[in-house]
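$ run holo --ligand "pyridoxal-5'-phosphate" --emit tokens
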Amino acid sequence: MREPRERPIYLDHHATTPVDPRVIEAVVHAMSVGYGNPNSTEHFYGVEASEMLESARREVAALVSARPEGVHLTSSSTAAIRTAVAHAVERRAKKAQPLRIVASRIEHAAVLNALAEAERAGAAELSWIPVDHHARLDMDALRRECRSGADLVCVMAANNEVGTIYDTRTVCELAAETGASTLIDATQAAGRVDLRFSGWGATYMVLSAHKMYGPKGAGALVTDAGSIPRSEGTPNVPAFAGLGEACRLRRLEMDEDEPAAAGLRDRLQESLLNRVPGLVINGDPPARLSHSLHVSVPDVPNDLVISLVRAQVALSTGSACHSGAMEPSHVLRAMGLSLALQEGALRMAVGKFNDAAEIDAAAEYLSSAIARARAVL
Ligand code: PLP
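-- output --
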């Protein structure tokens, strides 16, 4: 591994976050001291490990205002989403008929894949809610879909590319009016915006530790909708201890951390706007995650910019890799962005361990890379 000072400035916090040192302490404690098997509750060590899982459940519940009994620990948001969709399919009222699922066009691939699989199996019928140029959801279309008999509504709490925040409270209210269930993917929003699982009457909510300064391999499905099969095997107690600590810290610190992140993000945005002629800000600035900055440089391919700053700054195109080839983002396409804006798209997100000096340096590296790219194109 490279020495810290040689490492590029990390601006890809939508992909994953560094782990908070206090979370690392909790993980190490669970690994070193709390090594019991949580299923071996005949003795002290098993009980201790089992209590660590209970404590993690309580912390997840407290972060999203849910009941601890409704928190099911999973290996990721992806696993939680798959479990939720399978559960909704399994308990559909009219067993002979497919579940009618309505989802936003800009859901994460983890949701899209789970839904497509249910559809292929003949267990679900899908319809889609469009978004506008800022990735804002068409709430009238959602209302219509609910009234025409949707069984399950899937809307993310915040988008992982352009950072748009969704009014999931109203989504839950609209769904409840017609008796539809809801699946809220809170992977990007948890620990950054206020989430009220019980108060909103959501059916399923998912989150993941590694998006909020916790470890990879730990997530949760929150639901009060009946029995959820337990994951197989011995639970990864250290990862879940990390999830619990990450949730506790977010609950206590997000009100302070998020405005600070917005300050750094705004600094980066201003700096880039001043230095890069023609820069376009994507998404919905009035309703955007505080750390999120998605831009397009319409005349410069994003992969060229990324390759030029590779050694100095870590950021993303937001494109998905399918069978070795990069595919344009389905989110930007759903927003109706021009091809030039899609091909020049750069996704950034700052984090609580970035500082102003890093942000200024990143803006300098990026703007000069874009100028160099323009000079050779
Ligand atoms: N949903 C959203 C909105 C995400 O951003 C991600 C991760 O990028 C996922 C789901 C999948 O999360 P995990 O990595 O925990 O499976």
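-- notes --
DSSP finds twelve helices and 14 strands in the chain.
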